[in-house]
Amino acid sequence: MDSRDAFVHGERSLGAEAQQWLQSLPGTAYATDSAWWLGEVRFVADSISTLSHRSAADHASQPELWLAQVAETERWPLLEQLQQAMTRGDSAVRLSYVIERRDGSQCAVDDSVSIQRDASGAVEALVGLLQASPVAAAKDGPPLQSLLDHGGDIIMALDEDLDCHYVAGNTQETLGVTTASLLSASLFALMAPEDGSRIRRLLVEGGAEAGSPMVELRLRHRDGGYRWFEIHFSPYPLPLGPPEEPSVMPGWVAIARDITRRRQQSLQWNAYTATDELTSALNREPFMGLLRHAFASADAGARFTLIVFDVDHFSDINQAWGREGGDLVLSCIGEMCRATLRERFSFGRLGDDSFALLMSGKSLQETAAIAEKLRGRFASTRVEFHGHWLSFSVSLGIAERRGGELAEAMLARAEAGMQDAKQHGRDRVQQAL
């Protein structure tokens, strides 16, 4: 199905969901037939009243009211400019003009028009976005951009690769970055590795069906951690680039809401219940839940590898240096694993001194190299403890997920590899069978 079908149905009307999201766009959206405001108005957002001081119902029933507010000397050049764009086969045109309201006040308007065509190239609909120019906004009240930037949600216009072409909202608070730093950046680059392939698949399916998927995912904060977001993607047929550039099709309007607190409360995945306080690793059950979720939501060909390890002779460390000395060793392990993986939710503590690292998209050879690097770092680490230097080593087992393998089975194989490493002298990496 063509993406424009989400906005203009075969019966020449707009679907309820499309109307809902057109109402929420940052500006005033409208849809007409090929005659623009001289023909049939199929949709106009309620916010048009802030521009014209007339209700959306008035404009829907009397389309000519909008053009009547444009000075006649300016009206015909506008119609000619639009007609030329349609005749040339353009997919978009941007118009700028001034309307005069009933009370005599004026409003400067920027009008971005997307020209919708059928298979033969004939114009069948015009979808536009009206916005007051900065000068007009300053006279009538707070600038629209200022209002958006102080809102709780983040509004983005994205192309099919999820590169941001427009961003508004308080990104400084939610992600720790400015809106400017997100422009031309890909939303995929901010996602947790486990979420990227799932979201890509959902958007491909949503684009094919002209749907509006709602997803929950994690986006990276500037502090290195992740925040949970609920994002509603809706097809976006309007031009994203400068007037001289063609429309970017398909695209998305994405409205993102930070649901980290809600997610933590509903799933109890917060720092006190899901995460080990000493190492900042996920406790065993939350880690296994993450493992199962990653397997269930990934593409059939997605690659997952697992590193499982524990501390060699940990009971001897506790006996020689007490619980405090053992805890210091475990804390050091947590810091080094987090620095290596950069994602604490893929790092789990399975027992007193045993841990697991989930790798996404890595081959078994790549994972073996990471495991060997960790082994070397642990073996060369000296931890100061009351004037003494503690040393330790670890034994590691690695496994790659087999087709359709369950989380428990893969973990058991990796643990078996770890036991083999211990039987072969400890302080080594062993691949699972």
TrEMBL record:
InterPro entries: Diguanylate_Cyclase, GGDEF_dom, Nucleotide_cyclase, PAC, PAS, PAS-assoc_C, PAS-like_dom_sf, PAS_4. One of its GO terms (molecular function) is diguanylate cyclase activity. One of its GO terms (cellular component) is plasma membrane. Its EC number is 2.7.7.65. Gene3D superfamilies: 3.30.70.270, PAS domain (3.30.450.20). It is an enzyme of class 2 (transferase). Residues 213-271 form the PAC domain. One of its GO terms (biological process) is negative regulation of bacterial-type flagellum-dependent cell motility. It catalyses: 2 GTP = 3',3'-c-di-GMP + 2 diphosphate. Residues 302-433 form the GGDEF domain. NCBIfam families: GGDEF, sensory_box. This is diguanylate cyclase. It comes from Salinicola socius. The lineage of its organism: Bacteria, Pseudomonadati, Pseudomonadota, Gammaproteobacteria, Oceanospirillales.
